[in-house]
Amino acid sequence: MSFDFIKDKNKKIHFIGIGGISMSGLAEILIKNNYKVSGSDMQSSHITDKLSKSGAEIYIGHNGDNIGDADLVVYTAAISPENPEYIKAVELNLPLMDRAEFLGQIMKGHKYNVAVAGTHGKTTTTSMIAHIILNEDVDPTILVGGELDAISGNVLAGNSDYFITEACEYKASFLKFFPYIGAITNIDADHLDYYRDINHIKDTFKKFIDLIPKEGYLITCIEDENVKTILHNYEYKCNIITYGLNEGILQAKNISYNESGCGTFDVYKEGLLLFQIKLNVPGLHNVLNALASIGASLCLNFSKASIISGLSSFRGTHRRFELKGTKDGVTVIDDYAHHPTEIKAALSAAKNYPHNKIYCVFQPHTYSRTISLFEDFSNSFYDIDNLILADIYAAREKDTGVINSDMLGDRIREKNVNCINLHNFAEIVQYLKNNLKEGDLLLTMGAGDVFKIGEMYLK
Q1: Residue 423, helix vs strand vs coil
Q2: What number is the average pLDDT over the span 34-58?
Q3: Residues 6 or more apart from 24 whose CB is under 8 A from it?
Q4: How many other CB atoms are found less than 10 A from the CB of residue 26?
Q5: Is residue 298 within 8 Å of 102, Cβ to Cβ?
Q6: Residue 87: exposed, middle, or buried by beta-carbon count in 10 A (0-12, 13-18, 19+)?
Q7: Do 200 and 292 fall into the same domain?
Q8: Catalytic: which of 166, 169, 322, 342?
Q9: Is residue 59 part of a domain?
Q10: CB neighbourhood size of 118 (10 A)
Q11: Is 123 known to be catalytic?
Q12: Catalytically annotated residue among 88, 122, 176, 324
C-alpha cells in the first residue's frame, strides 16, 4: 500500500477497533482532513461518541456488513483473522493494513517526525513534547497514547511538517515508522508474549534506531543499562543526544522536590547551564522524561522559553498519576502502571505525596505478563501500608487457568507485605469505605479498568 493511495481523499477508510486510543486518533486525523471514515468497536464509549459527532460512521459490534463500501480496512494488533470484518475484507479483496503500518504511511507525509519509544514513559514524554511544541507557531499533528487536556483528547490534527507520536514496541510495530527524531526512554523486559527475551527486545530497538536518517537524532537515556549495552560498540548513522542524572550530553542537576513530590532542576548541556525547569508532575522518573522531551525540542530548535513554559504547564495525562479527587479527607490518584518498573516509580511518587497511609489497589494486566514477570511483580510492593489485588485483567487474552491473582497475592504475602485479594470491584470499594481514614491516599494502578474503583469510591 502506497502513501499516494492514502492521499486520495475520495477513498473511504474503515477501522476495525476504532474505539482504541491510537486507532481513534488516526481516524480523527483523517476526519479533520475531510476523509470518509467508518469504524466498529465492541462497545460504545465517549471516544466512539466523539467520532460519531465528528462525522464517522460508527458500528457497535463486529459484523461483515460494517465494511460497506470501504476502499481500505485498518485493524489493530488485537484483531484476529477470525474477525468477521477482517474475513469480509479478505473476501472482497480489499487492501488491509495494520494500525502501525497505516500510522507509518501518514508519517511519510511529514518531514519532522518525532517518535517516542521505550518500555515506560512514552505517553508522558510525548505529552511533554506536545506542551512544548504548542508554544511554537508550527501547527503540529500530535498523537498521544492517552488523553491530554491541552489538545482536548488524544490527537491534534495540524497542517505542517511536524508530527509527534508514540512509538510502541509491541509486536515490533514501531519498525513501520519513519522517525526524524527517535526517543528511547528506557528498555525493559515486557510483552514477553511476543518477544523471546530481553535480547530479542534490544535487537528490535536497534532496528528502530536504524530507521533514523543520518541527519536525524536519537534521544536516549544513557543511564539505562539496556540502552547502554545496545549503544556500546555499535555504529549508528544518526546523531545521538544522550541524557541522564550523572551521565550524558544533557543532565539534570540540583534536583529538589516540593510538597507534592514535583521536581525542580537545572538543565546542563555538555557541562554548561541552559535553564531551570519546574515540573508539575511528581517523581524522579518524570525528571528523566522531561530531559527526553528537552532533547527532542533542542534538536528541533524550539526556544528555551517554549521548553520552560511547556514543561511548567504540563500537569500529566489522564491515567498517569492522575488526581481523581478527594472524599472525606482521602486523596484518590490513578496510574496506568502495569509493569514492575512502573509500579515502583508510581509508589515512589506516592510516598513523596502528602499522606497518612497508602492504600494501593493493583489490577494485574494480562495473564502472560503476570506469569512472565511473576517474581518481579512480587518484589514491587515493598514498604507499602496496604495492598489490594484485583483479578487479572485479561485484555486480549483468554484465561487458561495457569495463573491468577491469588497466586500472585500468596507470593507477595510470603514477603511480609500487607496484601489481600478481593475479586470484584464492589467488594473492593466496600473494603476501602470501611478502612480509609482522613489523610490516607488511595492509589489505583493498572492498564485495565481499575480506575473505576477510585471513581466508585468518590461517588
Answers
A1: coil
A2: 93
A3: 18, 47, 48, 50, 51, 154, 155
A4: 23
A5: no
A6: middle
A7: yes
A8: 166
A9: yes
A10: 24
A11: yes
A12: 122
Amino acid code (one letter) for 340: P
How far does Cα 105 stand from its chain's mean position?
Answer: 21
**What are the start-end ranges of the E strands in 363-454?**
386-389, 419-421, 441-445
The domain in which residue 364 lies consists of 322-458
User: Per mean pLDDT, which of 191-195, 272-276, 380-384 is the most reliable?
Assistant: 272-276
54 and 162, same domain (yes or no): no
Residue 344 annotated among the catalytic residues of the structure: no
How far apart (Å, rounded) are the C-alpha atoms in residues 241 and 182? 10
Indicate if 176 belongs to the active site: no
Active-site hit among 119, 123, 124, 165: 123
- In this structure, the answer to whether residues 303 and 331 fall within a common structural domain is no
Provide the 3-class DSSP secondary structure of residue 224: coil
Radius of gyration of the chain (CA): 22
pLDDT above 90: residue 193: no
Q: How far apart are CA 412 and CA 254, in angstroms?
A: 36
Q: Among 34-38, 233-237, 245-249, 365-369, whose mean pLDDT is lowest? A: 233-237
- Average pLDDT over the chain reads 93
Do 9 and 127 belong together in one domain?
A: no
Q: What share of the chain is helix, strand, coil (3-state, %, to 5)?
A: 35, 25, 40
Summarize the confidence of residues 173-180 as an average pLDDT. Answer: 95
pLDDT tens digit sequence for 333-385: 999 999 899 999 899 888 888 899 999 999 999 999 999 999 999 999 987 89
DSSP output for 65-86: GGGTT-SEEEE-TT--TT-HHH
Helical segments of 211-259, H only: 225-231
Whether residues 368 and 233 share a domain: the answer is: no
Q: Where are the beta strands (DSSP E) in 53-135?
A: 57-60, 72-75, 96-98, 112-117
